[in-house]
């Protein structure tokens, strides 16, 4: 039963560019795992129209910071989070995005390296209760996209977004995915 | 009365000893996995503390690239 189509249509009609991130993007790159919500990346200049269009669908704000908007879903629509980034960041991720089909709609997801950067960023938040899924996602994305751990661009992203322990954490998990 | 299967291929399902993720990756297409996730999502959101559990997994630090 497709449940995402209404969200995609509403954002498209409101002129809000978005990228699907989180578990769905990870699965669409080929690393299968479960998730309980739909995560979308949007530019902060599009937050107001995004919020207005989703409110019309019946979504209610549960919690928000300048980094994300957690929305409570009405019946028959998916739990939804908007990750908010500055317009320049959105543009830099958008430019290398991959096109995929989700619920019969063409959507875009960050390419594997940019998605890995997003995942590594999440591991460094001290307030985050658990980071194991993020590390598993990074290892899974590397394996699913047949990327070498010696890849210079991957090494740069690991160092920049995952910090000094990233390589060790990833190596430990890559052989287990 | 027990039945036997004439085609052994039909019985080649994973055993508990095999890692679930490996079995999932080999046997399930991403599009099927997403359809399963949609169903799980709709059931999971009925939990009374669902939104607070989701909130605990959020990253409050803004991402910059």
Description:
The complex is a heterodimer of chains A (177) and B (65). With 177 residues, chain A is α+β, with helices and mostly antiparallel strands. Chain A has two domains: 1-110, 2-Layer Sandwich (Beta Polymerase, domain 2); 113-177. Chain A contains eight helices and seven strands, in the order αβαβαβββαββαααα. In chain A, the strands form two sheets. Chain A has a five-stranded mixed beta sheet. In chain A, strands 6-7 form a two-stranded antiparallel sheet. The longest helix of chain A has 13 residues, at 132-144. The mean pLDDT of chain A is 92. Chain B contains three helices and no strands. Chain B has helices spanning 20-27, 30-44, 50-56. The longest helix of chain B has 15 residues, at 30-44. Chain B starts with 19 loop residues before the first helix and ends in a 9-residue tail after the last helix.
How is this fold's topology laid out?
The complex is a heterodimer of chains A (177) and B (65).
Chain A: H1 5-13, E1 19-21, H2 22-28, E2 38-43, H3 47-57, E3 60-64, E4 68-72, E5 80-85, H4 87-94, E6 98-102, E7 105-109, H5 112-123, H6 132-144, H7 152-162, H8 166-174
Parallel strand pairs in A: 2-5
Antiparallel strand pairs in A: 1-2, 3-4, 4-5, 6-7
Helix pairs in contact in A: 1-3, 5-6, 5-7, 6-8
Chain B: H1 20-27, H2 30-44, H3 50-56
């Amino acid at each position: 039963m497709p449940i995402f189509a209404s969200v995609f249509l509403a954002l498209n009609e409101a002129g809000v560019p978005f990228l699907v991130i989180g578990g769905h993007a990870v699965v669409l790159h080929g690393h299968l795992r479960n998730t309980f919500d739909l995560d979308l990346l949007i530019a902060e200049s599009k937050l107001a129209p995004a919020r207005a269009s989703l409110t019309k669908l019946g979504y209610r704000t549960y919690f928000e910071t300048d980094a994300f908007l957690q929305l409570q879903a009405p019946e028959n629509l998916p739990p939804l989070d908007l990750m908010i980034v500055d317009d320049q960041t959105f543009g830099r991720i958008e430019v290398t995005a991959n096109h995929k089909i989700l619920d019969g709609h063409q959507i875009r997801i960050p390419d594997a390296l940019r998605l890995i950067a997003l995942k590594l960023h999440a591991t460094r938040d001290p307030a985050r209760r658990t980071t194991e899924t993020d590390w598993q996602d990074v290892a899974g994305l590397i394996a699913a996209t047949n990327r070498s751990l010696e890849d210079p661009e991957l090494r740069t992203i690991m160092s920049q977004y995952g910090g000094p322990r990233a390589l060790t954490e990833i190596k430990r998990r890559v052989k287990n995915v | 009365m027990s039945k036997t299967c004439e085609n052994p291929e039909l019985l080649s399902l994973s055993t508990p000893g095999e890692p679930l993720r490996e079995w999932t990756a080999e046997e399930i297409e991403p599009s099927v996995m997403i359809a399963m996730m949609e169903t799980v999502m709709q059931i999971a959101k009925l939990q009374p503390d669902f939104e607070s559990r989701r909130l605990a997994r959020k990253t409050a630090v803004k991402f910059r690239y």
